[in-house]
């Protein structure tokens, strides 16, 4: 059976990925534009743990047929014969299913809303919230798969989430569950967004540019991680949702009804060193 490695670039909008210089990942193909099932981290991850990753948008087909094809993909991804939709019922929970077939299941989460006390922890042998949400480099250099079992490893990377690894003190800061928890990563928020007013267009553009830079940082981290993996591994790299940078008067994601908040990059490939 194949190892399975999933890396979620949290909040990474499709065009941010497309504009970034992803020298390493481009070797495996250009990311396609897909669409997240939800506009916020928690429900989007619930869908992915149900076995449904960001989708294409085919027309003139029944949605039920699309779901069936998505579940059948797990047969190829894992190497488990006859794995299909019926294999997932009644739990409809990917980590539990993989445990049943002998996988060691592990997760490393950057976003506090994905902490181990949530229901998302179900079916994992090893589920941890990282000490800060810019931990991908640390994972890339220290993460180890199980030595005797096939491993399902799920990583939620926070580098592409607000505040996008910001070091510029001139850019405005927000706190709260929609942006980033107060004081996370050592950033002190002395004033709320409501007292500052909405971000101006120049700040929005700079924030979008910063997210693109964060994608490039993640590309280098993923190169470090994948060069350390020796066993055959199916890799999925995508995002849980997109982000708005001032379009139609929105910033961020979640309670946002806009197509860009659902547009995410998607790339899938197999490595076999």
The backbone outline, from C-alpha atoms, is: globular
Q: For the terminal residues, how far apart are their CA atoms?
A: 15 Å
Helix content: 25-40%
Number of helices: 8
Features:
273 residues; two-stranded antiparallel sheet; Alkaline Phosphatase, subunit A; alpha/beta
Structural overview:
The chain is of the alpha/beta class and 273 residues long. It has one domain: Alkaline Phosphatase, subunit A (3-Layer(aba) Sandwich). Helices cover 30% and strands 17% of the residues. The chain has eight helices and nine strands. The strands form two sheets. The protein has a seven-stranded mixed beta sheet with strand order 2-9-6-1-5-3-4, with helices on both faces. Helix 6 runs parallel beside helix 8 (201-228).
Annotate the secondary structure layout:
Layout: E1 3-9, H1 14-19, E2 32-35, H2 41-49, H3 63-78, H4 85-88, H5 94-100, E3 104-109, E4 126-129, H6 136-142, E5 151-157, H7 193-196, H8 201-228, E6 233-238, E7 244-245, E8 251-252, E9 263-271
Parallel strand pairs: 1-5, 1-6, 3-4, 3-5
Antiparallel strand pairs: 2-9, 6-9, 7-8
Write a brief caption for the model.
The chain has helices spanning 14-19, 41-49, 63-78, 85-88, 94-100, 136-142, 193-196, 201-228; strands at 3-9, 32-35, 104-109, 126-129, 151-157, 233-238, 244-245, 251-252, 263-271.
């Amino acid at each position: 059976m194949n190892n399975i490695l999933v890396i979620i670039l949290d909040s990474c909008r499709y065009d941010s990925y497309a504009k970034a210089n992803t020298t390493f990942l481009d070797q495996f193909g250009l990311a396609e534009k897909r669409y997240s099932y939800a506009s916020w981290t928690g429900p989007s991850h619930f869908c992915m743990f149900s076995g449904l990753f960001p989708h294409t948008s085919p027309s003139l087909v029944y949605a039920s047929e699309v779901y069936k094809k998505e579940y059948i993909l797990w047969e190829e991804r894992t190497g488990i014969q006859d794995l299909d939709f019926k294999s997932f019922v009644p739990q409809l929970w990917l980590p539990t299913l993989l445990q049943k077939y002998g996988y060691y299941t592990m997760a490393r989460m950057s976003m506090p809303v994905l902490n181990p006390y949530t229901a998302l922890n179900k079916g994992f042998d090893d589920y941890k919230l990282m000490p800060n949400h810019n931990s991908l480099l640390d994972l890339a250099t220290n993460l180890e798969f199980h030595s005797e079992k096939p491993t399902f490893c799920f990583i939620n990377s926070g580098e592409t989430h607000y505040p996008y690894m910001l070091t510029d003190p001139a850019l405005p800061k927000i706190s709260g569950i929609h942006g980033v928890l107060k004081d996370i990563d050592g950033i002190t928020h002395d004033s709320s967004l409501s007292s500052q007013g909405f971000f101006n267009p120049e700040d929005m553009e700079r924030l979008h540019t910063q997210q693109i830079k964060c994608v490039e940082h993640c590309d280098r981290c993923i190169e470090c991680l994948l060069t350390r993996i020796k066993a055959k591994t199916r890799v999925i790299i995508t995002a849980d949702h997109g982000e708005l940078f001032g379009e139609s008067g929105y910033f961020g994601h979640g309670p946002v009804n806009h197509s860009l908040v659902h547009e995410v990059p998607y790339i899938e490939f197999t490595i076999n060193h």
